């Protein structure tokens, strides 16, 4: 009882990140805690604490080369309150009343995870004596920060047996999942976000490990946005702890057979960790990013819609982020801009950009990205994939209708979830289980605006002749806030585009044959104008449905000084199939709910405009039956 209360109330070590330690000899060395429940909690000595006052964590050698894996990682056992009280083992009452309540709470996404320190895991009846049991620990990371970790053995694993392990990281603002046997919403979550349920992974023969990232929920420290210097090294410590578990299959000393899955924040952590820790055998980053600057600050226009929602999620969950995070979000919301220091903060987080961590990844990588993802668009996975393929890493790319957005065209169609589960399990079976007989299929699969899947044996798909539309008829766009602009999606969501009324329209010639539009359209426009707006916005509308392709809106920078200007740039990537007679229309709009345009005023006259739509070579495209 006293241990359970202590687990709930004890202060967390490592409230601030400390300077990364360069030498393996400098990793935290504390006597290993015994796994048996009821042992004394070891004293934790924190590495010299250096207050972080700078907005930027400068990348170190740890981010430019694989680190030496930590060894003998200390783990402090955590005992949920009801487990400590032994109520599930009380004859009759435990089996008939307590365990069903615990099982119900455990099956509720997020809520069950937050209440886990109280309720714990449901007792697994009927298991042979000595069967591995789930457990919770707080591991001591490299800088003394305690990371809250959950270990759930593979379903059916017997005493003395070992299984490969999958690490599943949570999304931003989410706790590490503890739903031992899955949840009733797993199918919906899988279909819309791409997240594989714990029950699915355990049933497939994997131990599953989850955790609260630093700065969130029951972990200590300060949230650093998947920094390779902090969160990635936390995961490296978790991997070393997994290697100490008797249930973990090993490839060698301190080297567990291990893969990673996870969406969004849980996708980004895979990429940065795999770059610095080559013990990872395969990763499946889903709706992740290449560079946060490109994702959150495209063409130097801050995504205020997503910035506000993400900030609200951190505030609502009492997260403890780097002190520079909240001011950056507020400044971006108010001004549409980020300072150079704030841009540097984002540049130091994630696998791409100047850090170029992607080129250091050796683990076979399956990338899922959402066609309607307006936070991390398709280009983020595209950049990661091209770098990985160039480095010779086994790579596959799947575009599905989901992610940080709303799949408005097939909300109740479970096909995307089926594809995600099938491809994920095949990838893990091939590269983590080591079953070379398993086929991982074509290198590229994508879904169009109707929910039909296609594939290509190579990524990117070989190109066909582009579709080009041009207008030289002068048109004027009044620039006013919100009125007649794009969005909000479904009338309320500032995370996607809708057909606009205040727009300059350029209709693309109708297709004469079945045409696969796959990739980033290129827009060139010549204009002049006056006003205070820094941007107009471009989107593609499906003329047959009136919906914006992928809900994607691209900010186009403009200079309204009365002089004639020309700008040429790619739009957000899309995937659409045009049947004979079908067409799309480019809309140039004054405002978008995705971006703050409250102070945008002026007028813009376009004298010429050209749009080029990329297409796939029909001979390289195969229709996929799911």
From TrEMBL:
Keyword set, alphabetical order: Hydrolase
Record InterPro entries: AB_hydrolase_fold, FrsA_esterase, Xaa-Pro-like_dom, Xaa-Pro_dipept_C
Organism annotation: Mycolicibacterium madagascariense
Residue ranges of domain Xaa-Pro dipeptidyl-peptidase C-terminal in the record: 425-621
Pfam families (UniProt xref): Peptidase_S15
Lineage of producing organism: Bacteria, Bacillati, Actinomycetota, Actinomycetes, Mycobacteriales
One annotated GO molecular function: dipeptidyl-peptidase activity
SUPFAM superfamilies registered for this protein in UniProt: alpha/beta-Hydrolases
This protein's record includes keyword Hydrolase: yes
Name this polypeptide is given: Xaa-Pro dipeptidyl-peptidase C-terminal domain-containing protein
Family from the record: Belongs to the AB hydrolase superfamily.
Gene3D superfamilies: alpha/beta hydrolase
